[in-house]
Amino acid sequence: MSKIFKSNQRYYYVIKQNRIMKKVIFLMLAITMSLGLISCSSDDDNTSNEPQFNIVGTWKVTQIFINGVESDVNNYCSYRGTFQFINPNTFVENGFELVENNCTAKETAAGTWTKSGNSYTIANVTSTVLPATFTPITTTSNISKFELNLSAGGIPTRLIFTKQ
């Protein structure tokens, strides 16, 4: 009888170990799956690994279209300067002007800039090229360029700015 009892005791011990192992494996599987679901949450879908446009830096007009026709930027003195957007919110324009048929550097103009949504506002400075408030047109494929559509003397003008 003692052999049967020991045999049954070992049998129950093995069954109990199997049940514990099944619970441990199930618990490990549940933890792994929940971690996998957390790491694939929907907020990851809204982020992009693509670089984002940043206006901070020095910009120069590299292309100009007047009435839809491309023109040589060098033919327009006021578009030869550079435009610097410096943190924290300082704007500097190194512009040019036509003086006695010569394109000459004019006094540096400085002011401030702010961003609201996708629009930028320049304050405390009179810019010869940039309007007081503008929304640059950008693409994610080339964040080192932006364009502005404006009216220069009533003529539709499109300026392409390139980061220097």
TrEMBL record:
InterPro entries found in the cross-reference section: Lipocalin-like
Domain Lipocalin-like: 55-142
Source taxon at top rank: Bacteria
Pfam families referenced in this protein's UniProt entry, alphabetically: Lipocalin_4
Name of this chain's protein: Lipocalin-like domain-containing protein
Natural source organism: Moheibacter sediminis
